[in-house]
What we know:
alpha+beta; five-stranded mixed sheet; 10 helices; 52% helix; elongated
Amino acid sequence: PGVGFWLLNLVLTTGFITVALLLSRRLGVVDRQRRAHQRELEQRTSDLAVISEATRRLARTTESERARELVCEVALDVTGAPLAALLEPAGDGRGLKVTARIGGRDAAEALEFRDGSGEAEAFIRRSRVFDPDGERLVVEGLGSVLGVTARSALWQPVLQDRQAVGVLAIGWEERPEPPSAAKLEALEAVAADAAVAIDRAALLVRLDAMARTDELTGLHNRRAWEEELARERSRSARAGEPLCVAMIDLDNFKAYNDEHGHQAGDRFLREASAAWKSALRLIDVIARYGGEEFGILLPNCSLANAEQLLERLRDLTPDGATASCGLAEWDGTETGAEVVGRADAALYEAKRSGRDRTITASAASDQH
C-alpha cells in the first residue's frame, strides 16, 4: 500500500504539473495574443489620429498643390515608407502624371501605361497592387517617377464614385514587411482623402477660372487683366523686352444696342472679341475691361509692330462696325495704372478726333 500510494501521488503530481504547464503555456499564448491585439488597437488608433488630423488640415487647405503633398505625407506616416507619389490622369488617356511627390528626387513627371505595371493595374482595374519584390517595377515605372531605385512598391487606387481618379504610389528602397490589414485599411482612408483633395482642387480651379473670366465673352475679366498686367511688367523688366498696352473700344456701341437690342449687342461683343483674339499671338492677352472697352497686352512687341497689329484688329471688327484704339509702351518704371492711363487717354483722343483710328500715346517722360 505504501508503494501504491507513492505511485498514485507521483501520477497526480505529474498530472498537476502537466496541467499547470499546459495552462501556463495557454495563458502565455493568450497573453501574447492580448498584447498583439493591444498593439494593433494602438496602431489603429494612431493611424486614425493621423488621418483625422490630415482630414482637418485638408479641409483648411485652399492650395491644391499643398493638399496633394499632404496626402503623400500622411501615406508615409501610415505605411512607414520613405517614398510616395500621387499620380493623376495625364489628360491624353495614355498614362498618369505626377501631381505630388515626397521623398526621392525630381524625376519624370509622367508615366505611360505599360502592360503589367502596378500603376496601370491599380488605375485600370481599380484594385490595390503590392509588389514586394519589384516584379512590376519596369524601368519606366515608379522608380523613374521617384528618381530612385524603388525595390518594392504598393499602388493604392484613388476612387471617386467608384471611378479611378488617381493612384497613390508608395515605394521602399528595401523589401518591407507585408502591410498589415490595419495598414491597408488606413491606406484606403488616405486614398479617400486623396479623392476629396483632387475633387476639391478641381473645384477650386474651376472657381478661380470663373472668377477671372468674363461671362459674356469668355475672355479675361478686369481682375485677371490686373494680374496679367503685373505679371507681364515683371517679366518685361527681367527680360529687358518691350511691353505695349492697348485699349480698344467699339465705336457707337450704344447706338447699335438701341437699334438692334441688347441680345444683338451681346452677340456683337462676343463676335468682335473672338475676331480680335484670333489675330493675337498665344503670348498676348486680351481682356474685357468694361462695357465695350477691351484691354490688350502685347509682350515683347515694339511700338511700331503694335501699331500694325491694332490696325489689323480694327479691320477685323465685324458687321462693318469700327473701333478706336489707344496705345502706350510701358517705360519700365511706371505703375500698371499709369501705363493703362496713358493708353486710355490715347483712346479718348482717338474718340474725340473722329473715331475709327489708333492714337499712340507720347512717351511717359514727355508728359511730365
